Amino acid sequence: MPYQVVGLGVGVVKRSQPDERHPGRAPQPVRGAEQFGGDVAPSIEAMALDYLERLLQVRPHGPYRLAGWSMGGLIAHAMAVELRERGEEVALLALLDSYPGQEINPDERDVLVELLSAIDYDGPGEIGDVVEFLREQGGPYATLDERTLTAVYRNYRNGVKISEEYAPRMFEGDVLFVTAAHGHEEGGPTAADWKPYVTGAIHDHQVACDHANMLSPGPIAEIAALLREDTE
């Protein structure tokens, strides 16, 4: 059964790495959700419905395994709610360091700095320099040109806005939550913030990484093992 993985929703999907600890194990298929129809999305719910329609084209019926990181967790939760309301089975809902109800004002924070730090860039921030950095680094972002990178920034900034506006509905089922153990401030958001929006249990696991690096090879291998354990 494949996993449907939702990332930041900015038009770039990080592809998973092989599980080096179990080289003989057949990998689980992973499908990544891309950005909203080539334009900025009006809401988390709209993104969820857009992704869901694409998912139903390749897998019309469940059971479904959904996972989402950061803003993608909000989208995955909305998708899970919609699937359950349609009578479909959601075998797994995994939320990766994703929190509802955060008060975020994109006009009062340097969103570009946050986006660039997520790709380990610490240069002057000029668009041409960022593109050259990505090409030198290689990997999934190496082919981004200036136009695409500008669109990624636009989608990221919009994602901050619609995440703040998102009002989750109730999901009938359990949640597997993964907390990025590094970088959390005292009094910050926790997995328990999802309790008003989940009827079942919330099983919280910690992974030794910060939020921005949660989908790097080491942490994602540990998360993949947690997902397998939860569904075996």
Word description of this protein:
- By secondary structure, this protein is of the alpha/beta class.
- The protein has a single domain (3-102, 167-231), classed as Alpha/Beta hydrolase fold, catalytic domain (Rossmann fold).
- It is 36% helix and 14% strand.
- It has six helices and six strands.
- It has helices at residues 44-58, 71-85, 111-117, 127-137, 146-165, 217-231; strands spanning 3-6, 30-32, 64-69, 90-96, 175-180, 202-207.
- Strands 2-1-3-4-5-6 form a six-stranded parallel sheet, with helices on both faces.
- Helix 1 (44-58) crosses helix 2.
- It is globular and about 50 Å long.
Quick take:
Helix content is about 35%, strand content about 15%.
How confident overall, as mean pLDDT? 78
Number of strands: 6
What level of helicity do the residues show?
A: 25-40%
- By CATH, the superfamily comes out as Alpha/Beta hydrolase fold, catalytic domain
Terminal Cα separation, in Å?
11 Å
Count structural domains: 1
Radius of gyration: 17 Å
Estimate the strand proportion.
5-15%
- Architecture (CATH level 2) name: 3-Layer(aba) Sandwich
CATH topology: Rossmann fold
**Global geometry:** globular
Stretches with pLDDT under 50, minimum 5 residues: 9-34, 105-109
Write the layout of secondary structure elements.
Blueprint: E1 3-6, E2 30-32, H1 44-58, E3 64-69, H2 71-85, E4 90-96, H3 111-117, H4 127-137, H5 146-165, E5 175-180, E6 202-207, H6 217-231
Parallel strand pairs: 1-2, 1-3, 3-4, 4-5, 5-6
